[in-house]
Amino acid sequence: MGSNGYRCRAWKTELQSQLADSHGLTLTVAHYPTGASKWIPIEHRLFSEISKNWAGEPLESYQKILRFIRSTRTQTGLSVSAHLDRRKYPTGTEPTPQQLHTLRIKPHEILPRWNYTISPNL
Questions:
Q1: CA 115 to CA 108: how far, in whole Å?
Q2: Which of 52, 87, 102, 116 is the most exposed place for a label (fewest CB within 10 A)?
Q3: Radius of gyration (Cα) for the chain, nearest Å?
Q4: Is residue 36 scored above 80 in pLDDT?
Q5: pLDDT tens digits, 57-100
Q6: Measuring CA to CA, which residue among 33, 24, 20 is closest to residue 115?
């Protein structure tokens, strides 16, 4: 299970505070069930082109990696932008009871643990 798995309470509290509440958005979330394929067509199209672009080159620095990613182009017009995020992100944090209490989650009828809607606290 990844960091945004359906059981991860931190994922839900961050969606609530950083997206739903800060931007007034209603979010519908649909997690893949355990063992299901997470193949995303645009990622595979993108990653294969980037890999072809840097094939056989040693990736010695972040700047070199970014240069290869940014210079990726396809005949159909795909171009790629990238930047290096050097921020530190805390790990192992657990939401407080207060954060959990403010969650506005409505489970869906079908697979309610994996599918739900988060509404903003207005």
A1: 6
A2: 87
A3: 19
A4: no
A5: 899 999 999 999 999 988 888 888 999 999 998 888 899 999 99
A6: 33
Please name the helix (run of DSSP H) or strand (run of DSSP E) that holds residue 51, with its range, or none: helix 41-53
Q: Which residues pair with residue 28 across a beta bridge?
A: 117
Tokens 């657990």 correspond to: 94
What is the reported pTM?
A: 0.64
Q: Tell me if residue 28 falls in helix, strand or coil.
A: strand
Q: Is the dihedral of CA 6, 9, 10, 11 positive or negative?
A: positive
Across the beta sheet with 115-118, the strand order is 27-30, 115-118, 105-107
Own/partner contacts of 46-51, CB < 8 Å, gap of 24 or more, are 46/72, 46/78, 46/80, 49/74, 49/78, 49/80, 50/80
